[in-house]
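Worked example

This section walks through a single chain of length 307. The input is the sequence exactly as stored; nothing has been trimmed or padded.
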Amino acid sequence: AQLPPKTVACKDWIQQLQSTDFTAERPYWERIETAKVAPIPQDFAKKKNTMGTADTLSVSLSSSETTKLLKEVPQAYSVRIDDILLAALLLTFTSEKSPDIRISLEGHGRPEDQDLSRTVGWLTTLYPALLSLPPAADRDLGTVIKSVKETLRAVPNQGLGYGVLRYLQSTTSTSVSQSETSAASTPIRFNYLGQTDQLFNTNSWLAPATESTGTARSPEDMRDILLEVNAVISRGQLTLHWTYSKALHQPETISQWTTQYLQHLSDLIQHCLSIETDSGYSPADFPQMGLGQGELDDLLASIGGEA
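Given that input, the structure is written out below as tokens.
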């Protein structure tokens, strides 16, 4: 068999990252890592968070609401699907007394300008994001969505620089803290995997297997996160897989959180469908103007008045 020539090797991509200067991002990532956030509650303390104690609870959004989430919701605030999913997560785990939460986000670490069609390697980004509830006086579902959207749009290089500064560039002047961020300070890892329906032709003989892939790591390995939430849209329905440790949380606690989450998500969807499509702009939609949310709202109101 004559295989096509290889494309960009994983080694070449790593070398390119090592030679890229991300020093200017260092203050941003240090601010995210050092911000004080309240831990999420645990049912059991001082027990080992091992792979052997991990379990997964999966919950799904209805097909009709999934369709609305995909086709109608983004029009209201020019949002991405993960903006809404993370806004629901923020509402689930914060309160007036604890309005901030640090979440580890996983995303694509693939270079957009290079051919990776025959590249072997798991190219992904993993970085912390600090999500915050808006002040109570100004808070509604719309301001929550805008807050999450603005936070995510402000992440430099879609989080790529964080891993480089922390793991590849180890000099004191450029690296982010080398100590592992504890599961207590960054308790949740979130990953939106997108729509798997688009990856496979419905008439193809090749389709995802329904069986479990089995154990990938030793049961004695330590987990580095309290909750891992993986969201995926398959067969026209959004499903969220919540992986937790039975040594730290009771199944009833996780079930309660998932119920609250789905309610918040449903409320956010209904809110997006109820507003005018041109009333949900935020500063990230006009990055060259350098306006704050209040200034932008005033400008849009004046334009609307003249019209």
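What to look for: The mean pLDDT is 85.
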